[in-house]
Amino acid sequence: MAAKLLLGAMLLAAAPLAAQTVPVETSTLGTSAITLHLHPFLTEEELTTLRLVMTNEQALSLFVPGTPGHAALAVSPDDGFIRVGAPMGSATAVADLPDAAAAAAAALAGCDAAKQTEAPCVVVLEIAPAP
Q1: Are 60 and 53 in contact (CB under 8 A)?
Q2: One pLDDT digit (tens) per residue for the chain, 131 residues
Q3: Closest by Cα among 112, 38, 34, 32 to 74
Q4: Contact 73, 93 (CB under 8 A)
C-alpha cells in the first residue's frame, strides 16, 4: 500500500514536467539558428508569422537587427502573440544578449511584467548564432 502511494505521488510530481515538453521546429537562416516552440495555444496565424521569421531574412531582421547575439520572443499563453491582426502588448522580443539563457530570461521578464493575466509567459522563439 505504501509503495502504491509513493508511486502515485511520484507520478503526480512528474506530471508538470511532462506537461512542459513542447515540440519544436528548427531551421538555419543565414548566420542564425532558429527554434520555434509549438505551444498548443498558438493560432495558425501566429504559427505562420513565426515560421516566416524562420524562413525569411527580412522578417528575421526584425528580431535580430544584424547582431550576432542571442534573441528570444516570449508571449502570454492567455494573450497570445497576434490577435485581431496585431501583436499583443505583452509579447516581448529581446536581442543581442550573450547567451540563450539570458535572452529567454529577459524576454520572459518583459512579458510577465506586461501581461494582464495569470498564466506565466513562455518562450515561443529562440534565435542563436548558427554553429
Answers
A1: yes
A2: 443 333 333 334 443 434 468 999 999 998 899 999 999 999 999 999 999 999 999 988 877 776 678 999 999 999 999 988 888 889 999 999 999 999 999 999 999 999 988 999 999 999 999 88
A3: 112
A4: yes
